[in-house]
Specification:
mainly alpha; 63% helix; rod-shaped
């Protein structure tokens, strides 16, 4: 699932950004400056939401790929005639 999210997320983010900024580049009449500023404010608000969503998705991806409660158990078996030389432990 995370791999699917990784492969589609950049394309989705680019498409969303393009769709949100396209109205800002459209031509308008000189008397519609108020509407233009309202649209620009909406675009900025949506950009902030996209950035927040991107951050949340990144955190979720990190949690899925690298869980905090990962544990490793190692079991050793030693013959009776040989000594174990332990290099390091933590």
């Amino acid at each position: 699932m995370a791999t699917c999210l990784n492969s589609r997320f950049p394309a989705l983010l680019a498409a969303l950004t393009l769709a949100l900024t396209a109205p800002a580049f459209a031509q308008s009449n000189p008397g519609e400056e108020k509407d233009e500023t309202a649209v620009a404010e909406q675009v900025e608000a949506l950009k902030k939401k996209v950035i927040r969503l991107n951050r949340d998705l990144f955190i979720l991806e990190e949690d899925l790929l690298f869980p905090a409660n990962t544990q490793v158990a190692v079991f050793l078996s030693v013959d009776a005639g040989k000594f174990l030389k332990l290099d390091a432990s933590s």
